[in-house]
Design goal:
With 169 residues, the protein is mainly α. The protein has one domain. It contains six helices and no strands.
Amino acid sequence: MRRLLDRLFDASAWLAAALMVGTLAMVVLGMLDRYVHMGVRGTDMYAGYCMAGAGFLALAHTLKKGEHIRITLLLHALKGKARRGLEIWCLVAAVLLSGLFSYYSMHLVYQSWDFADISTGNDATPLWIPQIGMALGMLVLFIAFVDELVLELRGQRATTHSSEMLHNE
């Protein structure tokens, strides 16, 4: 199961990376279109869709690598059961919030598909297509938070400490 979850989080990160390349490609294509007048429209919108999808799809991998920004001042002041209790409370809240966000983002994709909602830009893209990145990213983030909660409850959660604080001047 661990290997499957790690592959899921890595696949989400690779998809986010591919969407970042897509963002770059759309920006470059838009710049070329301004100079060569190829008649390509909607590159700004597609760059935005790719960027949003990349942001959401990278969330779970970032969480699992311990790179999310956390306010640890209170957490480091606590010891023992109080610290573990706060960690569990935070993870339960994260599971609930990411679960709700995941559900409603999937619901938004369904509604956009059901109503045949399209972009108001000149690309007229069916909105459910770019919204899939958000919904999928939130679903994978929800799975990652559930995994973190289960690991914390079992006492197997590895806490990663960022060395960024050491480099402040």
